[in-house]
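User: Could you check the structure of this?
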Amino acid sequence: MKGVQYITLRNEDESVSVNIRRSGFSIGTKDGKRLLFHKLNESVITELEIRFEKAYMAEWSELAIELKARDEYIEQVSRRGNVPIERVRKTVAGVKGNESMGYKWVSYPYHEERQQFNSLVDELYEKNKDDFESREDVFKLFAEATMVGRLLPVARLIEKTFGKGSFRMIGERSANKPDRAG
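Assistant: Sure, the predicted structure tokens are below.
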């Protein structure tokens, strides 16, 4: 993957440790204990997953039954709860179960983090409308940074909008410990 960079190979008591320095939008700390922007990175990836699924998965006949069951469930939840269908679609990733046993829905991951990310994108667009034709253009800036690893355009936009140090603050708030099991 183009956006992944590894650093720090060290030998500790005959075991080797590899720390991730960069992965998509995430930046590993030098001590290898945290990934800055981890939750933001996962939010962008999940949003891209939702878009990919919407654009292409329906074309695969192998998934037709599963997608139909999910779409019917989403419609029922939307009607029953009087919730806009698009809001339910952004939450429900799939449905497990059957009519006799009942259905249980599975959500897309990072729901709260995705809401925060989308609020950030909305705010950046609202405060920089002269620089962007649409909210989608701001999202694309984050998506490109995640896929290619060039964060500078996003960093500049955030610093311009919210002030010096704001990019780092967002990275700290979105930090997580790296997954060593994966």
